[in-house]
Amino acid sequence: MLLLVDLDGVVYRGSAPVPGVPALLDRCAAQGDTIVYVTNNSRWHRDEYLARLDAMGVPVRSDLIVTAARATALALAADDGEPSTVMISGGPGLARELRDVGLRVVAPTAKGLAASPSVVVVGVDFALTYRRLSVAADAIRQGARFIATNRDPVYPAADGLWAGAGSMVAAIATASGREPDLVIGKPEPGLFQTAALSVGWPPERAVVVGDQLATDIVAAHRVGARSVLMLTGVTTRAQADAATADQRPDAIAADASELEAVLARYRPESTRASR
Ligand SMILES: [Mg+2]
Q1: Less crowded by CB within 10 Å, the N or C end of the chain?
Q2: For residue 167, what is the enclosing H or E element?
Q3: Known catalytic residue: 6?
Q4: Tens of pLDDT along 143-170?
Q5: Is 35:59 a contact under the CB 8 Å cutoff?
Q6: Domains of the chain
Q7: Are 188 and 203 in contact (CB under 8 A)?
Q8: pLDDT in tens, 181-215
Q9: From the CB of residue 133, how many other CB atoms can be counted at a distance below 10 Å?
Q10: Alpha carbon of 211 to ligand 1 centroid (Å)
Q11: Ligand 1 mean position to 147 CA, how many Å?
Q12: Element counts in the chain: helices (H) and strands (E)
């Protein structure tokens, strides 16, 4: 069975693991499930998640972590034709993911613009300035493809909500007069498609485990995967019960033991028999 597991609100909340989930994932891996960890976050490189998950006792390898940054890199690498020069309005982890697949990366500076980038990738950019915003918009106006890692307007931090990649995408879209040509992250299907295909599975055979109706569950529907909503993150039971059809999960789990029971029902007969 292929599990596409969201991180924040499912595996951990902030720096604390969700009780029972790392141990459950370890048991799932031991009985042969393939587990890919997916997140809309584009700021960090996979290696940073690897260290964090490993410390929590979560079974993981670097190639089983597909962030929106990694999925963007894989999507660009799969493009036919000349290798692109990519302008990045985003964090160092995003730049590193793109360099990992052999792309030439430039910053949103006058020098970067002079390199005639064919693509502008926008993720959450902690170094965003008026100047960087103007240059990224300029590159798009000059004909570069506009790719957004995700459109999350905000995301939760320890001291409140911080501006997400979507805020920066909106600013660049307004300044350039163009909407993104491609958005990779949830609720768009690209992140889950890339994550499933990266391990050789058709996305529609995946089981998505997430904590957000409007992103995780909607994206699961879009790729035709089953979905389990965890109530360990941002969604309450009342919100889950009131979900519209496109946001309705196949199952709801309040904690790790309920998730384990749902997954046992979903696991194919053949793997259950061979245990
Ligand atoms: Mg989440």
Answers
A1: C
A2: helix 165-176
A3: yes
A4: 999 999 999 999 888 788 999 999 999 9
A5: yes
A6: 2-40+186-273 (3.40.50.1000), 80-183 (3.40.50.1000)
A7: no
A8: 999 999 999 999 999 999 999 999 999 999 999 99
A9: 20
A10: 5
A11: 22
A12: 12, 15
